[in-house]
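Exercise 7. Given the encoded structure of a 476-residue chain, write a plausible sequence.
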């Protein structure tokens, strides 16, 4: 009986010489050479060459390879493209900002949209990076109750209790959005304070029927997390708690412990964090008005009007509330941010916010800031762990409902060629509250479906390789 090694040799010898030559002379569409490949999905952390063919990774190898186009990556880290599960704006401008920060897939999963088909159709002509959206309870409630708010509810959508007929209409629209391929259900309890427990439970039950995660901006603190966990437990819906550090503030460690315990009991719960001590939202929204409408000047000073840098007092608050627009909220601390970023529970989500030329620096610097400040400088987490939170974790969160995510967040043959290449020694954010458009440094190349959208640290103009990411639906 011949040994396996002898049989293998016989098979090789039996192959036609032409086939062997074709294999050795493969020329890929693009080759990435000599970079340190860091793949959190497998733990690979070694120098490799990558071959890209037809928008997918075709080879990860120590062998010499060649491509029609070549990227020299020696001294750089080659990582899966960053996946942002929480980004507002979703325009060509914000996609450009995010690409420069290493993002290859951007999702609006908290606020979402009221019309999933129209949202995707508006971007179908081509975008720089991949994109996806939730069917949003906030937006659906605004539509069903005819709220006049441009971004957030400012009238009935926030403050009117829904009738049984209204709840029926809201759930019908939510189901229609899921049927149209929404990635998840979005919700924001602080933006819809009149929504009753029964209404919110109905929302979660719609999500549970489609096995869609509910991405929730909870009410603040441990009581808010308890409410969301109870709804998820009662309905069976997967739960994703957005920006745990922003919702938790001083209670962040306790809330992370609550999520740990919920997961221990078998609940499907995840969370995210962003690396800044200040948030941003619309001044006319219920989450600002309900908290600050009767606040003292010392409390109002937590709010900044970003266009001028003014801190609020009673007079300014009334003035800008009448005008409307985004405000910066300084309500967190660096220890709480670090606790969330370092927690193995929390993936990274930017909560990118950009409105009419005004925005938060997290729109342009979130991922570089985690890599530079928290991984390299503070050693709050390892580089591999930081990358896991930006790539593999968000892909896993979404892939049960969106099978396309099984090809993202990974560097392996067959995976989509969404790739971020950066210098681990220099990568850092530069944007500030005064200059939020400043791009980071150290992000050398970003590829989306195999096409460079950032090259040598500069945005590549005129390319739109991004694709819609959505759940299976009837009109694919």
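Solution.
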């Amino acid at each position: 009986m011949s040994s396996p090694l002898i049989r293998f040799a016989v098979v090789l010898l039996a192959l036609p010489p032409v086939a062997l030559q074709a294999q050795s002379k493969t020329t890929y569409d693009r080759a990435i050479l000599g970079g340190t490949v860091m793949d959190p999905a497998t733990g690979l952390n070694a120098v490799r060459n990558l071959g890209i063919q037809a928008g997918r990774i075709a080879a990860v190898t120590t062998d010499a390879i060649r491509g029609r186009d070549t990227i020299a990556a020696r001294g750089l880290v080659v990582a899966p493209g960053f996946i942002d599960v929480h980004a507002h704006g979703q325009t060509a401008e914000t996609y450009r900002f995010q690409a420069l920060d290493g993002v290859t897939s951007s999702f609006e999963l908290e606020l979402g949209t009221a019309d999933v088909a129209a949202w995707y159709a508006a971007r179908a002509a081509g975008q720089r990076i991949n994109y996806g959206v939730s069917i949003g309870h906030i937006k659906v409630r605004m539509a069903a109750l005819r709220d006049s708010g441009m971004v957030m509810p400012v009238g009935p959508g926030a403050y009117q209790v829904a009738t049984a007929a209204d709840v029926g209409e809201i759930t019908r629209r939510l189901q229609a959005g899921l049927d149209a391929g929404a990635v998840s259900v979005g919700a924001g309890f602080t933006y819809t304070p009149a929504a009753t427990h029964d209404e919110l439970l109905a929302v979660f039950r719609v999500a549970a029927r489609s096995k869609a995660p509910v991405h929730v901006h909870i009410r603040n603190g441990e009581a808010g997390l308890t409410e969301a966990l109870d709804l998820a437990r009662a309905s069976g819906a997967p739960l994703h708690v957005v920006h745990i550090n922003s919702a938790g503030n001083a209670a962040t460690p306790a809330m992370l412990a609550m999520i740990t315990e919920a997961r221990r009991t078998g609940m499907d719960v995840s969370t995210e964090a962003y690396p800044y001590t200040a948030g941003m939202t619309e001044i006319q929204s219920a989450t600002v008005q309900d908290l600050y409408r009767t606040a003292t000047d010392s409390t109002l000073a937590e709010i900044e009007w970003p266009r001028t840098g003014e801190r609020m007092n009673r007079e300014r608050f009334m003035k800008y509330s009448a005008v409307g627009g985004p405000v910066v909220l300084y309500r967190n601390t660096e220890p709480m941010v670090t606790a969330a970023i370092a927690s193995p529970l929390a993936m990274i989500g930017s909560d990118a916010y950009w409105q009419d030329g005004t925005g938060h620096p997290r729109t342009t610097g979130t991922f570089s800031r985690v890599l530079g400040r928290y991984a390299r400088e503070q050693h709050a987490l390892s580089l591999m762990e930081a990358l896991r939170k930006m790539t593999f974790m968000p892909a896993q969160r979404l892939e049960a409902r969106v099978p396309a995510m099984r090809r993202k967040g990974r560097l392996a043959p067959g995976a989509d060629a969404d790739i971020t290449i950066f210098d681990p020694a220099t990568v850092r954010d530069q944007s500030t509250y005064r200059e939020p458009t400043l791009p980071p440094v150290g992000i050398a190349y970003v590829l989306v479906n195999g096409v460079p959208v950032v090259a040598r640290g500069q945005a590549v103009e005129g390319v739109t390789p991004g694709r819609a990411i959505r759940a299976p639906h009837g009109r694919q």
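Remark. The longest strand covers residues 27-39. Students should compare their own answers with the one above.
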